[in-house]
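Listing S7. Sequence submitted for prediction.
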Amino acid sequence: MANHIAKPWHAEVSELLARAAELCVEHDVEVDPFVRGAYSAYLEARPGLREELADRQLSEQLDELRKSGRIAQA
């Protein structure tokens, strides 16, 4: 039985991203949809992250509104 040395995870990720990029180039996909697709896949792989980011953004917006006096502070 041959020794099989597993690749480091970052090398595998790099190879997968490179292959995805090659496929997108072959099919004339622009960079923005490629990046959005990669980001969306990352969010889908981390349940709850999308909601956490939305909560943070809402919190920041509320803070800005409070600082500008557009809504009351509790």
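Caption to Listing S7: primary sequence and predicted structure tokens for the chain studied. Residues 9-67 form one domain. The CA atoms of residues 40 and 50 lie 9 Å apart.
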